[in-house]
Amino acid sequence: MSNDVLIRANDLSVHFPLRGFMFGERPVVRACEGINIAIEKGSFFGLVGESGSGKTTLGRAMLKAAPISKGEVIYSDDEVTYNLATLEGPELKDYRKRSQLIFQDPYAALSPRMTVRDIIAEPLEVMRLTSSREETDARVREIAAMCRLNLEHLRRFPHAFSGGQRQRISIARALVSGPRFIVADESVAALDVSIQADVLNLLNKIQADSGITFLFISHDLSVIAHTCDFVAVMYLGQIVESAPTRKLFSETFHPYTRALLSAIPSLDPDVRGHAQRLEGEIPSPINPPPGCRFNTRCPHAQERCRSEVPEWREMSSKHHVACHFAEELA
Amino acid sequence: MTSPLISVKDLTLRFKTDEGLVTAVNNVSFDIAPGEVLGLVGESGSGKSVTAKALMMLNADNSVYDPSSRITLRVDDQEIDVLSLKRPKDQMVIRGGSISMIFQEPMASFAPAISIGDQMVEQLLIHSDMNAVKAREISIEMLDRVGIPEPAQRFKQYAFEFSGGMRQRAMIAMALSTKPKLLIADEPTTALDVTIQAQVIDLMKDLVEDFHMSILFITHDLGVIAQTADRVAVMYLGNLVETGTVRQVINTPAHPYTRGLLNSLPKLNDLEAPLTPVPGDIPSPLDRPPGCVFHTRCPEYIGDVCKTQIPGYSKDSANHEVSCHLATQGEQP
Lengths: 330, 333
Hints:
Chain A is an alpha/beta fold. Chain A is built from eleven helices and twelve strands.
């Protein structure tokens, strides 16, 4: 295991059992199955997939906010090493300081009854990171300035702010405890494009200045392409391809990644209708198709894809793919 | 040039609220020709949905139309003054008659406790003189046409049994079964995944050709517009800032706001290009800036004229219309 990996999932599965069946085996939602990823220190790691692909669940499992059913998640910075699958007690509390989450909807994530100052200060007070009110205030001001919030606005309530400003408040709240690892779950999906660019630039700047490692979850491949240096593509609970961003876009192996890329509407009105279209929709994670999970929608599916689970293999340095026919299709 | 299917002239619409009159749409004029797809782009709060709903008189009771506003619909050589239709019975000429609408969130648009089929039949019985058997036949035919497998079985199911993409297809089938002249599509693909969005866009392009109808396509996504529209109108804070063909607006945007929107979009063919946000936030519609509404955020602000004078519309030879002092100043060197 190389030293520059901050957090790594080995064969991670997250299953949610369903209630309400009298006989037979209880059905299980296989939200994540056999995930292997390694996020390097100081990287901006992008996770892309459609709704229902399990990207949020994976992000939460990395924060120990979703149950880990199988496999392990190893977090290791220069001070501590934790296995999240068995983490509890004071060590779990310590991990909460080291990892944070930024939510999708800045309208729902902030309490309407708290001032911006209180919202940002809450993690400090709950985790007892500061010893006096003055220290808390100083820290809040420092973080607020970093997130380009107007310091005079700290006494206002969230309703007075626009979507972009609220998202910057959420970011400040996540940053205030001094985390090493942040999961940003669809953090720009609810914003207008002109504001979205602003928040993306802010996240990139924070990452460059402070060296915080980001797991950036998004359904939008073009946003990921612009902000992340590493991308993993998820489909129905599994990672189908992962590579450094540039590599993934110059050489795409998995047919699903290719379909995702071509489904993005082109900005050029003269390039119409050349896209490769996927038939059908994402199957249910309760009964995923046998073999390769993508076989029901894959334009290149063959007999082998329906019976044999494709191996997770390295095509070139750091470029992994799970497809039987990656070489032939490239 | 054929006469437009619908002309909107000087549409100004305000809402009465506790905080006073809010101007949602200000002096908006545009035409849609028969068979044309007009894309209406803008960020949230720009008034694009309110404009679209005005075409069907669907805005809430607290809306006030300015007396100079005109919306004229031409059907079978007859001109209908849409805003003069006050009684719901008269409004049936437009609602479900000449104009149909599909919405962003298909789950919220279907009644949850009535089967999809019954809802489709119901509107056909109201809007045409066909009997129930014929209405059922047509509904199943439409479900089949929009690519829903096993339409006869699906006909009996409820909205929750459909996936997001299927629901949106059923919504389109329902909207088109009355054979409207104009389809208003309000962010029809925003709630869908990209692969499903691509399917729905392909389907809509097919249907335009088959049914020869016009579409008013509302979206915030310039990529979707580039793929679907013939002409584009860009809205900002209730004003139309630029209108032109899709190639004019996307390839040679004339308004600083349109340029700003395009520069803030991540582009897949150029990963190095920095994302340039439009500075600042959209002002509240309660205090609309005087002069040009965009001057508070405009990176190409040229001085007091932007702050004090409302820019008029200037047109170039190819009917590319823009409302900006930069453009009018360019004309008189």
